[in-house]
Every structure is written in C-alpha cells, then in structure tokens.
Amino acid sequence: MDRTDISNRLIHFTKGITPEEAFDRLRKIMSDRVILGGSTFRKGNITCVCLSEAPSKSLPDGLRSYKGYAPYSSFGVMFDKKWVFSRGGRPVIYEPDDEYELLPESLRWRHVRYDPTAVPPIDFTWEREWRIPCAALPFGPDDATIVLPSLDWIEEFPEMYQVDYDQQVGEDSLARDIRFDKELGEIFPWHWESLDPTEPGSI
C-alpha cells in the first residue's frame, strides 16, 4: 500500500538565503561526502546531524511549516531510514522543557521543545525530525540520493561536481571524467531525484 504519510527515507535539507547559496552548500556536502553536525538551538548544546521523516511526496515546495514558513531549501541529501538507524539515528522526542531532565542523559540529545499551549505556541512537529548524535556523517554514492527542487538543476550539478573533483585530484591525466556520457551511461556517481511531482524524476 502506498502511504503518503509514511516514508522509509530521511532527508537532510540544506539552508541558504537564495537557491544558489543552498545549492552551493549541497555541492560542498556531496564533494566532501560528509554532513557536518551542528548544535544551534539544541538544548544541552549537543552536536547532531538532523534529517526529516516527512514524506517527499508531501514536499513539492520543500519542508515547510503549517503557515508556509521554510527555514530550509528544496536541496538535500536523502538516506534509507535503516541506514540512518544503524548509525545511531533516532526520531526526536517532542515534549515540554520541564520534561527534559526526566530523560536519561544518554537520550537528551533527542529532546525538542513542544508546547502548543504557550503564547505563541511552540510546535516543530511539522519537521518530523530525526537526529544522529555525531560531529560528522560520512557517506558514499551507494548510501545517498541527491534531492533537487526540479530537473533543471540536474545538468548543472555534475558539471559543478566535476570542477570540485578536478580541484581535488589536480591535473592527473588519469582523473576520471564524471560528466554525462550518453553511450557509456551516467558516469556521475550519485543518484538524484526531483521534488517536483510533475517531473519523471520525481521522488
């Protein structure tokens, strides 16, 4: 059964004031093959990598709140939920701040404040957040899928990734060409999908 409210995959969305800035952050993540953790707005200042369980079919405009607020872009990196779970990832625990200390210290990294009775209400449940308590999350092409807002970005991404790759390996004549090759197949090592439901490459 196709359940639009359930997903077996988790997405780490990038941020940026403009789409170009968010894309540049995604490009760096894919070039480095690692997502760095952060501790901003984390009670206890615990460093984690954050992802969303929100089903991609419900995100044609990216991850947004009930009122349309979007601190994230429509660019991201998607992983299988089992892969994240095997690396210590767990869904957060939405609860009032006064319940934080009721958690064992080993679980406090999962706390996210939730209080719909506050003025104004505090409710981040729309993020459907998962966290991995780590400073960095390394991954490879077999682990991750690039998430893009539309297919318009697909052709540009391999070209820009090629520039990053060339800078890393220098002018070595044996450096592989990761650009598209219609006869040899797509040598670019990453899978990608579009959030646009009208496109054939949509998730």
Q: What spatial form do the alpha-carbon principal axes imply?
A: globular
Lateral strand order in the biggest sheet? 1-4-10-13
Number of domains: 2
Helix/strand class: alpha+beta
Q: Largest sheet at a glance?
A: 4 strands, mixed
Classify the beta-strand content into a percent band. 15-25%
Mean pLDDT: 85
What does this structure look like?
The chain contains three helices and 13 strands; from the N terminus they run E-H-E-E-E-H-E-E-E-E-E-E-H-E-E-E. Helix 1 (19-32) crosses helix 3 (156-169). The chain has helices spanning 19-32, 81-86, 156-169, and strands at residues 9-13, 34-36, 49-52, 76-80, 90-91, 93-95, 111-113, 129-132, 136-138, 144-148, 180-181, 185-186, 191-194. The strands form five sheets. It has a four-stranded mixed sheet. A three-stranded antiparallel sheet has the order 3-8-5, with no helix packed on it. The protein is globular, with a radius of gyration of 18 Å. The chain folds into two domains: 9-138, no CATH class; 151-194. The chain is 17% helix and 22% strand. The protein is of the alpha+beta class. Residues 171-186 have low confidence and may be disordered. A hairpin with a 3-residue loop joins strand 11 and strand 12. It starts with 8 loop residues before the first strand and ends in a 9-residue tail after the last strand.
